[in-house]
Design brief:
By secondary structure, the chain is α/β, with parallel strands linked by helices. It folds into 3 domains: 87 residues, Winged helix-like DNA-binding domain superfamily/Winged helix DNA-binding domain (Arc Repressor Mutant, subunit A, Orthogonal Bundle); 96 residues, D-Maltodextrin-Binding Protein, domain 2; 96 residues, Periplasmic binding protein-like II (D-Maltodextrin-Binding Protein, domain 2). The protein has 10 helices and 12 strands. Helix 7 links the parallel strand 8 and strand 9. The longest helix has 28 residues.
């Protein structure tokens, strides 16, 4: 049926329930002429009289009483559905989709897991990928993004943390090639870098200006692969201070620079931002980040 037909059924239901055109018009917020037009149109569609008209109002015929019964059931089910939807919005349950850049799952996962423990009715999907998930298409509830502040007018964007990055080499690389002592010597060394020549990470932007492209001899598409290549001695590369501190075989090539720091943003769509589970998660992850050091 069309939306017009559903409007007619809803109108007939109110007339049958209240017994008068004026009462139905008040409840529906329409003119009484609209109520009469809907009744006439619905009776025409069904080929049967739904009401007996008299001075006191409208009395349902047998067909009208059947309509009232069906419409009442539909109304009750809709009210139940509305209550369930409202209840879901007032509880931390269902699915929560979180996306993040590929270099920080080790940092985030413990806090996400602790949030789920607090809310056992929650199902987590933690997606790490280089691509940007579309919040306006419902691909995620919360996105943790790096780089420039997102400018989409439908997004709510909050500052999160600053990822401090350093330049490192494995001991095996240093044993074979030595290490640069100045920035000018960088162009004589081998580097691990991004597969995307226009990578937006601030340290990669810096690297493009500091060394010739041909010196980036090992290219990867995600942070985990970069870290593995650096640890294997394929070249000098960047990683977070927190990740590098986990490996005693890594050597800091240059002291971290402010321009290598990556700001992270908590991004939500305006339509989902105020839902309870999103608000609770944002509060939880921001509180957890207060205890993070060397990131």
């Amino acid at each position: 049926m069309s939306f017009e037909t559903w409007d007619e059924i809803r109108t007939a239901y109110q007339v049958a329930r209240l017994g008068t055109v004026s009462g139905a018009a008040d409840v529906l917020g329409v003119h009484h002429a609209t109520v009469i037009r809907h009744i006439d149109a619905l009776e025409g569609r069904l080929g049967s009289k739904l009401f007996q008209r008299h001075a006191r109002g409208y009395t349902p015929t047998d067909a009208g009483r059947e309509l009232l019964e069906v419409a009442q059931g539909a109304s009750d089910r809709f009210d139940q559905l509305a209550a369930r939807i409202k209840g879901q919005s007032e509880t931390v349950s269902g699915e929560l989709i979180i996306t993040a850049i590929s270099g920080i799952p080790r940092l985030l996962a413990p806090s996400i897991a602790s949030f789920q423990k607090e809310h056992p009715g929650l199902h987590i999907r933690f997606l790490t990928d280089m691509r940007l998930f579309r919040l306006n298409s419902g691909e995620a509830h919360v996105a943790i993004r790096a780089g420039a502040r997102p400018e989409d007018p439908d997004y709510v964007v909050q500052k999160f943390i600053q990822l401090r990055n350093g330049m490192y080499a494995a001991k095996c690389y240093a044993d074979r090639h030595g290490l640069p002592k100045t920035e000018a010597e960088l162009s004589r060394h081998w580097f691990v870098g991004p597969d995307d020549p226009q990578a937006r990470a601030p340290f990669y932007q810096w690297l493009r200006g500091a060394v010739p492209a041909e010196r980036v001899v090992f290219r990867t598409s995600e942070a985990a692969a970069t870290e593995a290549a650096v640890r294997a001695g394929a070249g000098i590369g960047f990683m977070t201070l927190r990740e590098a501190a986990r490996d005693p075989d890594l050597i800091e090539v240059m002291a971290p620079r402010p321009e290598w720091t990556s700001p992270l943003w908590l991004v939500t769509h305006v339509d989902l931002h105020r839902t309870l589970k999103v608000q609770k998660f944002l509060a939880h992850i921001k509180k957890a980040s207060e205890g993070w050091t060397d990131i």
